[in-house]
Amino acid sequence: MMQTTTDTIKIMTFNTWLGGEAVHDGVNKIARAVELSGADIVGFQETPDPGKAVAEKLGWHYYQNQEGRANCSVISKYPIIEAVHVDGMSAVLTHIQLPSGQVILVADAHLYYDPYGPYWALFDHKPVDEIVAMEQEARGRELALVLRDLAPHLASDMPLFLMGDFNAPSHLDWGDDTKSLHDGYVVRWPVSAMAEEAGLLDSYRIVHPDPAAMPGLTWSTVHTPEHPWGDNPFEPQDRIDFIYYHGSRVTAVNSEVFVVGEPKGFGSHEDNEWPSDHAAVVSTFQIATA
């Protein structure tokens, strides 16, 4: 009988807020945050992309799109043996070989930020069907491009991970049990619904299934209710950064929102140890070998 072994990996998704440019010594702070997280594989989002610079500081492998079409990169302790970008989309797909020899697919995406659905709900009080239609057009169209390229891998049992800044909440967080937090809104947000329908599992919500007890907010570390974005009357706090996974051999064993230090609000943020306006998400997985 063949003995089954297990790889344990820790994956981090990290919007770097203009590549660390919003704080002093940002690239070094990004590298330090990666080290403190204990991550093995990290997906970065937001231009200018710091992937190459951070990977070289850490002595890691990296794939950073070279054609100017994406503001995403993946850095990894383990070899990246194949990588491509998604045409027409800020997203990259990488194949990474783990120490056991098995290969996993890690995709990283950054969906467009505007218009932002929670503003339509909480500021403009638009009807749900109008919000859903907008989301489908603004970000659902983008995610469809990513899922198109992932489809052959989703049809197999290859361990697969899709992470990124999706700039949209999850339908798992805007249900009947949390509608009091969202002015009575219950929204099946299209992007998270599409991911679920494609067979992807939300690692944070698998580990923490109660959104009221564990909201997992990632937006925002500096645009707090008291320090809103632009002219907003306040800043809605939400979970918009995700690590999804697929494959019968993959188990999510832990997931956490990750921030270093205690970031000060926007306007007093330049000396923050944490270089981003998003919290990161770090999820730990066990992957049985085939």
Automatic annotation (TrEMBL):
Q: Which GO terms describe its molecular function?
A: endonuclease activity
Print the keywords alphabetically: Endonuclease, Hydrolase, Nuclease
Pfam families, per this entry? Answer: Exo_endo_phos (PF03372)
Superkingdom of this protein's organism: Bacteria
Q: What residue stretches are annotated with the Endonuclease/exonuclease/phosphatase domain?
A: 12-278
- Protein name (record): Endonuclease/exonuclease/phosphatase family protein
The source organism is Paenibacillus lignilyticus
